[in-house]
Specification:
Strand order of the largest sheet: 1-7-6-8-5-4
Number of strands: 8
Distance between the termini: 50 Å
Number of helices: 17
Largest sheet: 6 strands, mixed
Oligomer: single chain
Radius of gyration: 25 Å
Length: 354
């Protein structure tokens, strides 16, 4: 059975099913729901709907209270401290493929009850990562657990390389659930691909070219779970907006707003809470240079200010931190091929049209 989905509204039954492991472990629901800022009456009301932000808060609350990334679904806990060790072993990996191999290798060595296996079909340009062997506790929904694992993998892989991976398809070994609201199933929409049930294995599939993509995250980001901090919606998949290039662009724009027009690598690194060396290394992996990004930001700011006002060129130059109008004009012509006056005369009218 294969389906495609598009809706992102989650039923109360879907969120309530995440509490099955909590109940099995004997924990009280009220404290967890309070931590997640979800009312017990709301989650018990079949007419209530929830979103990915509320889902993520609930997942984090359960993880913290049970000290278990498997949310009580599996007989043996997977403590966050063990996951930290797995993340730590992958630090220093240059590509997504290297990181996956390192993490799977360590997982296989510390747990013999679960198995992650990856296969690469070079002829079909396909990569497959499957997961098996999880021994569920009584009363939980295996589909929900495997969806959580696959969605975690998908979000994390996309975040590591700074671009949303386009999936080929998702397979579930079990049948399609029928008790989480109307079909199509909204929690599957995040995959944006064909989802198949009653398959030989539970697995995620995508083009193997992604494996050679460079990892753009710093070790600090990887170990501290920055992906969760920036993405508070579990149904949202990280894309290019968190690349180091984009972070540097945002930092430069903020510094410029504060009157810092010639920031150094050290200043930007401090603003991003990383070392200058890490910043340079990450930009190198993305095939960009700090000076190039800085020049692009100054160029775009100059164009915007020139076209958005009737200020004299000298005033625009001063507002952008140039000590001499002539220096601004020379740089502007190098950036655009036109002098500031020529550029304004050519584009100001068209920019002001509705």
């Amino acid at each position: 059975m294969a389906i495609r989905v598009s809706n992102r509204t989650l039923s109360s039954a879907f969120l309530h099913a995440f509490l099955a492991g909590v109940k099995h472990k004997g924990h009280k629901l009220n404290s967890i729901l309070q931590y997640a800022d979800i009312e017990l009456e709301a989650i018990n009301n079949p007419k209530t709907t929830f979103d990915g932000v509320q889902l993520q808060r609930l997942i984090i609350a359960i993880t913290d209270h049970l000290d278990d990334l498997y949310l009580g679904f599996v007989k043996d806990r997977y403590k966050p401290v063990l996951n930290y060790a797995v993340m730590n072993i992958a630090c220093g990996s240059e590509t997504l493929g290297e990181s996956i191999r390192a993490r799977i290798g360590l997982r296989e060595s510390i747990r013999d009850d679960v198995h992650y296996e990856f296969k690469i079909d070079k002829q079909a340009r396909s990569f497959c990562l499957s997961l098996t062997g999880f021994e569920m506790v009584e009363g939980v929904d295996p589909h929900l657990f495997y969806w959580l694992r696959l969605s975690t993998i998908y979000r994390y892989h996309s975040w590591l390389i700074g671009r949303r991976i386009k999936l080929d398809h998702i397979d579930f070994a079990g049948p399609a659930p029928s008790h989480y609201g109307k079909s199509p199933l909204p929690h599957l929409a995040m995959f944006d691909c064909e989802v198949r049930f009653d398959q030989a294995q539970t697995a995620i599939y995508y083009d193997n070219q992604y494996l050679s993509q460079p990892i753009i995250r710093t070790d600090r980001e990887t170990l501290q779970g920055i992906a969760i901090e920036h993405y508070d919606d579990w149904l949202e998949v990280p894309g290019s907006d968190l690349s180091m290039t984009r972070q540097v662009e945002q930092a430069l724009s903020r510094l410029q707003d504060e009157g810092v027009f010639h920031p150094t690598t050290e200043q930007v690194a401090k603003a991003l809470s990383i070392t200058p060396r890490s910043l340079r290394n990450q930009l190198t992996r993305e095939n960009t240079r700090f000076q190039g990004i800085k020049a692009q930001i100054r160029k775009q700011s100059a164009i915007n200010k020139l076209l958005a006002s009737s200020l004299p060129v000298s005033a625009v130059a001063d507002a952008l931190g140039f000590s001499e109008p002539g220096d601004f004009s020379r740089n502007f012509k190098r950036w655009t091929g036109l002098s500031p006056t020529e550029y304004r005369a050519k584009y100001a009218k068209s920019e002001s049209k509705p």
